[in-house]
Amino acid sequence: MGKSIKETDKTNQKIIIEELSELISKEKRAQLLLDKELDYKANNYSVLILTEPEDYSLVRNGLLKKFSGYNLLYVLSTFPFCILEQELVRHKVDYSKFLFLDLISKTTNSNIIKKDNIFYLDSPSDLTELSMKIEDHVKQNIIIILDSVSALLIYNDSKSVEKLVHFIVGKSAAINAKFVMLMSKSPEYKGVIDVISQFCNKVCKIEKIV
């Protein structure tokens, strides 16, 4: 005989609980890896974080939780702000002091959430506009997060992205700021990683989170 509806519901609930427990454990491991690799207190500090594509969201969310409540300039090119905001709320991140430069919402015709701390740029391929916005909004001791180098490489040639990174590194150093770049590990990006690594104080290679 097959399982009753009640037994099936219990089985499904157990599976959901197990999946949630596994996710929470992975999120904690991601946070521990970041804590091990990063100097959160240092200023005038540029770091490139390399992560496995499947672990990218775990590492990004861990980073955001760590910087909850800080003055932060977040350059978003992986997905629209309306999706990122859901993650921020889910992880109870205080983003009241965050300033967002959203490069992707207009390109993807995503929902535009109007808030004073969000600027929607026309395209992720207009790095000149991005550079100008960063110039306008960076200030001393701010944290700059670029999410992500990988996404920008979809819309721009490698030389342009390298030039942008070099500009932000120089700008952050001049104002005693912290600059954190996120990037997915991939053999196709090796040349870009080699170039960008020369600009950074540190390259963090996050091992696969299991």
Write the topology of this structure:
Layout: H1 5-37, E1 45-51, H2 56-66, E2 72-76, H3 81-90, E3 98-102, E4 118-120, H4 127-137, E5 143-147, H5 149-155, H6 158-174, E6 178-184, H7 190-197, E7 202-205
Q: What's a quick, concise take on this entry?
A:
Helices cover 46% and strands 17% of the residues.
Textual characterization of the structure:
The chain has 210 residues and is an alpha/beta fold. The chain has one domain (5-205): P-loop containing nucleotide triphosphate hydrolases (Rossmann fold, 3-Layer(aba) Sandwich). It is 46% helix and 17% strand. The chain is built from seven helices and seven strands; from the N terminus they run αβαβαββαβααβαβ. The protein has helices at residues 5-37, 56-66, 81-90, 127-137, 149-155, 158-174, 190-197, and strands at 45-51, 72-76, 98-102, 118-120, 143-147, 178-184, 202-205. A seven-stranded parallel sheet has the order 4-3-2-5-6-1-7. Helix 4 packs parallel to helix 6 (158-174). The two termini are 37 Å apart. Mean pLDDT is 88; it is low at 14-18.
